[in-house]
Design a protein that fits this description.
The complex is a heterodimer. Chain A is 34% helix and 24% strand. In chain B, helix 2 crosses helix 9, helix 12 packs across helix 14 and helix 13 packs across helix 22. Chain B starts with a helix and ends with a helix. Classes of the chains: A alpha/beta, B alpha+beta.
Chain lengths: 266, 849
């Protein structure tokens, strides 16, 4: 199974230049809330590139701006300045309708609170984005996804009849079912115990490794971040560090280092 | 503390409660509109009548012999002779007497039509007097009528027709119309209103000649007492010398009686309104129940927290009821204001349709205010009681749990109970319909209808989920994700769907039943006319009064008329019961009414009766039975049953021989003429001839069978549309209920809606989703309502099959329109919730911080 829209993944180093290989990227993106005394800079001139076919984690303490960065990259929130690209499309040039279509066709979401439609079965939830688009689902791809997330025996169940881990796996399948350019996962293990969390993380990893998907995950959990190919560390609205091929102990160590350097920009 | 929480709760949920507030206010508005309208017109009528007849201390009039007399223009059959006037004049304590004359006299407007009023008030002619002791008539312009050629007309009629002093005005009396010159325009007391009557005043001698059949008689005698003699004293003094057949009453009683007559004609509006406000309030209570149920469900966590920190069940219950009371009070206040505006609007509306509701400031009585607040607050409290109890049962531990799904109550026991109640009701209705003449049929029918209604209410949540599945199928099948989600949402909370739909069901069930009834009445009437009316034309008075036999002469002479049969109605007491009979030669009556004898012969000698089979059976009379009788002139006698005829679909139940009629009924006036034309004559020419012959009689109507049908249909349709307009209010309230339910659901599903937006649903699709849900709710309510309506209508038809509603007619096209209306209501009700859903901010909806 290969990604039809992109070449084979290539690990990038410091990757600050825009290339066609990026699934998404930002150029000097800032997000500022309020003004005067209440002015808060959530994102401060961030330029970053999410390489295609890779599993990227965004880490940082609360208030570091990691969720805001993700929302801006996913077209859920508009930056105060700077540009966001998904593929080659610049988001600020899109109107509401086109933005919705972009989310529908090019972006997948996994939320902390699962956010499945309670009235629909697991299968209906998975095929929901395709139905919204009024498109037929690619049956072979759908089967692959269902097997990857391992919910085949639960397809006829409604969310209330599924465990938290099963619900989140269904949510992952929904995000992957449209074969999006990029999947954003917002604390996907936040509401799960460690075993169910590990299941979800491995399946996201599998989706990247085996099905060449691109996944961006926001988390504050070093164990979760350990599943990623690369970690971007955020603090005070800036990218302060990155780490390739992380492991959980490494991540933890780096986090501790940050806490000692609190407030000091690199 | 609880009070503070309740007030804070009201303020916090302001937007969620707004729609409910409107529903309460609408119901209260209708109640207070009815009461304000009634109080206002009563006050105006009081002013009219306390000034009216101030100087009249006593009234002498013929004693009504056959109670239930329907001659609205005075007892022309038995007037007061001059001898009685002279007797009264001689009574001690009487200062002055006035022999008053009144009778039918209708003004024609400038287009030649009789001036009528919306409430059907009479057209009367009187003798002119400006003696303030006897009449409140006083001139506004011109002068009183002098001579036979002049009249004065009332100011309301003058305003309506545009006639002014000096105009030549045609007036219909019992005979052909005559033209008079308007000499003056008068008012009654200080009012500009006559309560809908049109009044023509003639010079006294002319009035006698034109209005009374016999000279030297009066309709009644007004008496003015000497100074220092009270009304009661003069009444008893006259009573002592009055010959039999006459009665005397005080001026006050007489004017009360007159005002009561008018009042009851105006009272129809507020009474109808009150009935419909009951329906509206009832429908509104569904909206309230649903709102509070949803609010309690949404606030489970908050209520549990209060319980966890020590609030008792009772305090929680009181908290919810306190909010309900506050909402009810505010709703009542708005409703009262809206009611006053509605009352003013209603008066303007009635007057614009040719009614004459007296003007005057709106009267807001204390009792109106009390009722408005009582209805608004108590209904809200009662409706909130069950949700409040449920709120009390929220366990404290719910504060710690994640959003708990609402407990699913046993559907099976609900289905069982609902089915049992519905079946019992249906059985009761079936028994009543099968045996309509049974004494308890009415009770069985009513109780059955209520039971079916209650059963359907209980069942509706059970039905709701399958109905939503079935009704929603085409949406899910053909309308993509929005259709699928809309259908699922409609099934999601069957109780909510059912409550919203039930509110709609009530109004549509009543509309449906009335529509089926009206259609059946029309079909039955058509059938009766087809089977029972043998005449080709009927001549009758437009104002339902009797008219001069000269009209008969006019039509009899028309070429092509084979026979013209006058119908005279004789009211009499037969064996102690007042009945109406047609008087005339039975051989003449046989053709127009297609009489078929079952016993005896088709002929009457003096002192004989023919009766219909129904009368024979219900009174247990047979041919040869001697029946004791009392006639309109007071004479007693006996009548012999000479024959029995099959029940005619149209036509008299009793026929009196012409000789007895002539002996006991001095009036020669006729009520109707039945015309049979010569089958070989040119029908167009005959009709034209009849029209020409009646040109001098603008007060008379010439109708063929089709005209009769059309007239009956249009009056039924008018009545039905008036009722449908009033029922529309309850449908509007039900629509508000759907708006509210959907709006609250949208708030509840904010997160879900945000997610749908995040995964690519656009605003249009989201609006469609909400709209489809609303349409399913609307269609469900409409289907239930129309179904119940057809059931009720058919049962009523069956139960009254023997009372002239023999044919059941179900107007499918109109009922289909009601279903479409349900769908349209769904679409309209979805507008605001759909907009609200489309406005949901994705980030706020999915953010978990």
């Amino acid at each position: 199974m290969t990604n039809p829209t992109g070449p084979a993944p290539a690990p990038t180093g410091t990757g600050t230049t825009g290339t066609a290989e990026a699934a998404a990227r930002t150029e000097s993106v800032s997000k500022i809330y309020g003004s005067g005394d209440t002015r808060v800079v959530a994102l401060n001139e961030i330029t970053v590139e999410i390489p295609r076919g890779r599993f990227t984690a965004i880490m940082g303490p609360s208030g570091s701006g990691k969720s805001t960065l993700m929302h801006c990259m996913a077209g859920l929130d508009a930056p105060s300045s700077g540009q966001v690209y998904v593929g080659e499309v610049e988001l600020s040039s899109l109107n509401e309708k086109r933005l919705t279509r972009l989310r529908r066709d090019k972006v997948g979401f996994v939320f902390q609170a699962f956010n499945l439609v309670p009235t629909l079965t697991a299968l209906e939830n998975i095929s929901l984005p395709a139905r919204i688009a009024g498109r037929k689902t690619d049956q072979a791809w759908l089967n692959l996804i269902i097997d990857t997330v391992g919910v085949r025996d639960r397809l006829g169940h409604r969310p209330a009849q599924l465990s938290g881990g099963q619900q989140q796996r269904v949510a992952c399948a929904r995000a992957l079912a449209t074969r999006p350019e990029i999947v954003f996962a917002d604390e996907p293990t936040g509401n799960l115990d460690s075993r169910a969390g590990a299941d979800v993380l491995s399946l996201l990893q599998d989706a990247v490794r085996r099905a060449s998907q691109t996944v961006v995950m926001v988390t504050h959990d070093p164990v979760a971040a350990g599943y990623a190919d690369e970690i971007l560390f955020l603090a005070d609205g800036r990218i302060v560090d990155r780490m390739l091929d992380p492991t959980a102990p490494n991540v933890l160590e780096r986090m501790k280092a940050f806490e000692r350097l609190e407030g000091v920009a690199p | 503390m609880i009070a503070t929480l309740a007030i804070r709760g009201l303020v916090a949920h302001k937007p969620r409660l707004a729609v409910t507030l409107v529903a309460i206010a609408l119901g209260v508005a209708f109640v207070s509109c009815a009461m304000i309208f009634s109080a206002t017109t009563n006050a105006a009528l009081d002013r009219l009548f306390t000034t009216a007849g101030k100087g009249t201390d006593a009234v002498v009039r013929p004693q009504p012999l056959l109670v239930g007399g329907d001659d609205a223009t005075g007892n022309a059959d038995a007037p007061v002779p001059d001898s009685v006037l002279r007797t009264v004049q001689g009574v001690d304590g009487v200062a002055e007497v006035h022999g008053a004359v009144s009778g039918f006299a209708a003004i024609l407007d400038k287009t030649g039509k009789v001036v009528t009023s919306a409430q059907g008030a009479p057209q009367i002619g009187v003798d002119w007097t400006d003696d303030p002791d006897f009449s409140t008539m006083h001139l506004r312009s011109g002068r009183g009528p002098h001579g036979a050629d002049e009249i004065a007309i009332d100011v309301a009629t003058a305003a309506k027709t545009g006639y002014r002093v000096g105009d030549r005005v045609p007036v219909v009396l019992r005979g052909p119309s005559q033209t008079f010159t308007v000499a003056g325009i008068f008012a009654l007391g200080g009012a500009n209103s006559t309560g809908g009557m049109s009044i023509v005043a003639f010079e006294p001698a002319a009035a006698q000649r034109l209005l009374m059949e016999r000279q030297g008689t009066y309709s009644h005698i007004d008496v003015h007492a000497r100074r220092g003699v009270s009304q009661e004293q003069v009444r008893s003094a006259i009573g002592r010398v009055l010959p039999a057949g006459f009665e005397v009453l005080t001026g006050r009683d007489a004017s009360d009686e007159a005002s009561a007559d008018l009042r009851s004609s105006l009272d129809i509006f507020p009474r109808l309104l009150l009935w419909f406000s009951v329906v509206a309030v009832f429908v509104g209570s569904f909206v309230i129940v649903n709102t509070f149920s949803i609010l309690v469900a949404q606030r489970t966590r908050e209520l549990a927290l209060l319980r966890a920190v020590g609030a008792s069940r009772r305090q929680i219950r009181r908290l919810v009821l306190g909010e309900a009371a506050g909402l009810g009070l505010i709703g009542s206040l708005f409703g009262l204001g809206a009611g006053a505006a509605l009352a003013a609007g209603l008066r303007a509306l009635i007057n614009s349709f040719g009614g004459d509701v007296p003007r005057g400031g709106l009267v807001l009585s204390t009792s109106t205010v009390i009722w408005a607040f009582a209805v608004g607050t108590l209904v809200t409290l009662a409706a909130a009681y069950v949700p409040a109890r449920r709120a009390g049962t929220v366990p404290p531990v719910a504060a710690m749990l994640d959003e708990a799904p609402p407990p699913i109550r046993s559907v099976r026991s609900r289905a069982r109970a609902g089915s049992a109640v519905t079946a019992a009701g249906a059985a009761s209705m079936a028994v009543a319909a099968a045996n309509p003449s049974g004494g308890s049929a009415g009770i069985l029918l009513g109780a059955g209808a209520l039971l079916v209604f209650a059963g359907v209410l209980v069942l509706s949540p059970v039905l709701g989920s399958s109905a939503a599945r079935i009704l929603g199928w085409p949406f899910a099948r053909f309308l993509g994700a929005a259709g699928m989600l809309g259908r699922e949402n409609a099934q999601r909370n069957p109780r909510r769907t059912a409550a919203a739909a039930s509110a709609l069901m009530i109004g549509l069930a009543l509309s449906g039943a009335i529509t089926v009834m009206a259609s059946s009445v029309k079909a039955s009437l058509d059938q009766q006319l087809d089977e029972g009316l043998g005449s080709d034309y009927v001549v009758s008075s437009k104002t339902e009064t009797s008219f001069s036999p000269r009209a008969l002469e006019a039509v009899s002479g028309v070429r092509g008329v084979q026979s013209a049969v006058p119908i005279r109605t004789a009211r009499m007491e037969l064996d102690g019961r007042v009945r109406s009979a047609a008087a005339g030669d039975p051989r003449a009556l046989a053709a127009p009414y297609r009489l078929k004898m079952t016993d005896g012969r088709l002929a009457l000698a003096a002192g004989e009766l023919l009766i219909s089979k129904h009368v024979a059976e219900s009174s247990d009379w047979a041919v040869g039975t001697i029946v004791p009788a009392r006639f309109a002139d007071g004479a007693r006698g006996t009548l012999r049953v000479a024959g029995i005829y099959a029940d005619p679909p149209i036509g008299p139940a009793i026929i009196l021989d012409p000789a007895s009629y002539r002996a006991h009924y001095p009036s020669t006036l006729i009520n109707q003429i039945e015309i049979i034309t010569d089958p070989v004559a040119d029908s167009v020419a005959t009709k034209q001839g009849l029209r020409t012959a009646l040109r001098a009689w603008p007060g008379l109507d010439l109708q063929d069978q089709a005209d009769i049908k059309a007239a009956a249909h249009s009056s039924i349709d008018e009545f039905v549309s008036a009722i449908l307009v009033l029922l529309a209010l309850s449908v509007v309230i039900a629509a508000l209920g759907i708006v509210n339910t959907l709006g609250l659901s949208v708030i509840e599903r904010t997160r879900e809606i945000g997610m749908l937006r995040a995964v690519g649903m656009d605003r249009r699709q989201l609006r469609h989703m909400i709209r489809y849900e609303a349409v399913i709710v609307g269609a469900f309510g409409a289907a239930l309502g129309v179904g119940l309506g057809v059931l009720y209508g058919s049962a009523l038809q069956r139960a009254s099959a023997e009372d002239g509603m023999a044919v059941l007619s179900i107007p499918l096209r109109q009922l289909a329109l009601y279903l479409l209306a349900g769908i349209a209501i769904g679409v309209a009700a979805a507008i605001w919730p759909a907009r609200r859903a489309a406005r949901v901010r994705i980030l706020r909806a999915i953010a978990h911080e």
